[in-house]
């Protein structure tokens, strides 16, 4: 099969489009004929050069967000049938979906939202799961609470705005001015454009929860937003947490695949509560151009590869 492969941790310039051994489903795996693969601009820099057993990997296939059609089932796999349309988030320590086929653990997949095509569906898993887990698993968000979402116009932030709105929370988004209209359209009650005269201090003490997708000075300055007992959740570096509050909870996390949550995201999409943000679409063979463009910044939504 054809795939995009990286043979050493050299970044974008090391990506090659080549023939690789056909993917084979193992125990409890699903073999997917890939229709679309979502990529993250910095995933080539992640520490993924050893498998879970600790052995070095000779190469990696990137792109772990996938939407496609079940082509075969591994021994013991239940819950899916050949021909099912599925989407999900593959294990980062296994080969990804920048290929014609991928073998994925069945527990990391759910049935694709009926109302989305494969390109749209491939933009959901990482952003949707990250937003869900930040808000509900780590942030304990419930109806009537106030949440601040940093980076409200981004892939994760826009999902978080919509999920928080669906949950009945008051939503304050932050980001750049060009994202204001999108954040308000998706459900933010208020928006702070931090590249203008707006300041975090404008909503000081109003939040029960802050979800940060930005890091840096935005994260460092976020303690002012929280009421006593509030929660600050980030997907960035824990070293950037503010140190001036001991009456708030601070959480840094990496999202995990979860079939039940994927299924719930699919249901909310089909019912019209969530709208994913797919971006540019590239042929699989043009993966170098796709990663280069995404890394340069300015491309909205999730960049997607298609075999």
UniProtKB/TrEMBL annotation:
Coiled-coil segments: none
Domain of life: Bacteria
Residue ranges annotated for the Enoyl reductase (ER) domain, each copy included: 11-305
InterPro entries in the cross-refs: ADH-like_N (IPR013154), ER (IPR020843), GroES-like_sf (IPR011032), Lipid_raft_assoc_Zn_ADH (IPR052585), NAD(P)-bd_dom_sf (IPR036291)
SMART domains registered for this protein in UniProt: PKS_ER (SM00829)
Protein name as it appears in the record: NADP-dependent oxidoreductase
């Amino acid at each position: 099969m054809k795939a995009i492969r990286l043979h050493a941790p050299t970044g974008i310039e090391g990506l090659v489009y080549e023939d690789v051994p056909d993917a084979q489903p193992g125990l409890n795996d699903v073999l997917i004929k890939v229709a679309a693969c979502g990529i993250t601009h910095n995933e080539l820099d992640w520490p993924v050069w050893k498998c879970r057993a600790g052995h070095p990997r000779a190469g990696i296939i990137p792109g772990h967000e996938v939407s496609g059609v079940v082509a075969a089932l591994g021994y013991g796999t239940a819950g899916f049938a050949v021909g099912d349309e599925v989407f999900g988030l593959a294990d980062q320590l296994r080969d990804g979906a920048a290929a014609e086929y991928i073998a994925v653990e069945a527990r990391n997949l759910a049935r694709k939202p009926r109302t989305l095509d494969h390109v749209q569906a491939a933009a959901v898993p990482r952003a949707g799961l990250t937003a869900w887990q930040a808000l509900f698993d780590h942030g304990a968000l419930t109806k009537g609470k106030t949440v601040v979402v940093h980076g409200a116009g981004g892939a994760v932030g826009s999902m978080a705005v919509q999920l928080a709105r669906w949950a009945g929370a008051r939503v304050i988004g932050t980001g750049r001015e060009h994202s204001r209209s999108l954040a308000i359209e998706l459900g933010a009650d208020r928006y702070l454009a931090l590249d203008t005269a707006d300041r975090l201090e404008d909503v000081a003490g109003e939040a029960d929860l802050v979800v940060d997708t930005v890091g840096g000075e935005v994260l460092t300055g976020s303690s002012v937003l929280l009421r006593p007992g509030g929660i600050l959740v980030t997907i960035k570096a824990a070293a950037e947490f503010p140190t001036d509050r001991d009456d708030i909870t601070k959480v840094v996390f990496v999202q995990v695949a979860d079939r039940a949550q994927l299924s719930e995201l699919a249901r909310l999409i089909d019912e019209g509560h969530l709208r994913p943000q797919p971006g540019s679409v590239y042929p699989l063979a043009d993966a170098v151009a796709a990663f280069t463009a995404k890394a340069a910044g300015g491309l909205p939504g999730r960049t997607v590869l298609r075999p």
